[in-house]
Amino acid sequence: MALAVDDIHMTYGELKAVNGVSFTVEEGEFFGILGPNGAGKTTTLEIAEGLREPVKGSVELLGEKPWPRNLKLLPRIGVQLQASAFFEKLTAREQLETFGALYGVKSHRVGEMLELVGLTEKASTPEAKLSGGQRQRLSIACALIHDPDIVFLDEPTAALDPQARRNLWDVLREIQARGKTIVYTTHYLDEAEILCDRVAIMDHGEILAMDTPARLVRDLNAATHVILEPGTLPLDQARALPGVDEAHETDVSLTISTRTPAPVLSALADRGTLDGLQVRTATLEDVFLELTGREYRA
Which positions carry the signal peptide feature in this UniProt record (predicted)? Predict the structure, then answer.
């Protein structure tokens, strides 16, 4: 067991930032803590890392208690915070060399980390001249420079453009492929659905659901939406198709809802109406909406 969090609580005045959170993370697992801003994700992560003491509950990290600050754990954990602070005027390579020196890391490790995060060509570039995505990748490299067993990443893809986010996904997959345990927070549900082995969905300081993304979606038993161009089929005929639960039409689409999409698609194929068709299955966002009854806020 890499991490065991048991009934942790954290309050700030009247605010219950974390309210009875419990979960475990296995070695080599990619575990995501999901939720909107203010859900309690960062506080939960900081308690797990040993940066904060909970008012109640306990944490066991790699078989040790992380609080009070446990010096034995420091070489075995890597932490990338929401806001990264680098040394002024140092290049990407110099940043990594400086972080590595704190752990007695040999110089060849710096080149390996630059290659892992795709910054080899930016090694001589001052940190201030790196793009947002490059800076995030450098921050992750700093968290990995000493080859930790478990890595904590707090919203590593926040504020990145879509291309930079996708590039960072590849880095995260490679980290896990090297046998590392990853615990990360995000409010991007689509991202977690692709990357995580298991996820915990949080809001208002509590875990609302926890399982593999596929099982959470499957257990929701949500309808599949078949989306067609408006006017493709008269609305009354769409509603009469076998397996249709509901159908409605707007100026931009005809949407058919069904829990048995196979007969619906077969009937549409018989009518030659598959051109431009889209099929949307349930996602983690649908799970969140079902659990909270309100729109997901980033």
Answer: none
The CATH-assigned architecture of domain 223-281 is 2-Layer Sandwich (3.30)
Q: Where in the chain is the domain with CATH 3.40.50.300?
A: 3-215
pTM higher than 0.90: no
How far is Cα 12 from Cα 172, in angstroms, rounded to an integer? 33
Distance CA 3, CA 23 (A): 8
Is the link from the previous residue into 261 a cis peptide, with omega within 30 of 0?
no
Q: Could you please report the per-residue DSSP string of 157-172?
A: TTT--HHHHHHHHHHH
Rounded CA separation 157/254 (Å): 34
Query: What distance in Å separates the CA atoms of residue 238 and residue 271, rounded to the nearest whole number?
Result: 11
Spatial neighbors of 288 by CB under 8 A, at least 6 apart, are 34, 189, 201, 208, 296
Residue 61, helix vs strand vs coil: strand
- CATH 3.30.70 residue window(s) in the chain: 223-281
DSSP codes, 260-297: -HHHHHHHHHHTT--TT-EEE---HHHHHHHHHSS---
- Tell me how many degrees the CA angle 193-202-2 measures, rounded to the nearest 5: 75
Per the CB < 8 A criterion, the answer to whether 184 and 153 are in contact is yes
Domain 3-215 fold: Rossmann fold (3.40.50)
pLDDT digit string (tens) for 40-83?
999 999 999 999 999 999 999 999 999 999 999 999 999 998 77
Residues whose CB is less than 8 angstroms from the CB of residue 153 and which lie 6 or more positions away in sequence, other chains included: 80, 140, 143, 172, 182, 183, 184, 185
At 86, list the tokens: 């680098």
Report phi then psi at 72, rounded to 5.
-65, -25
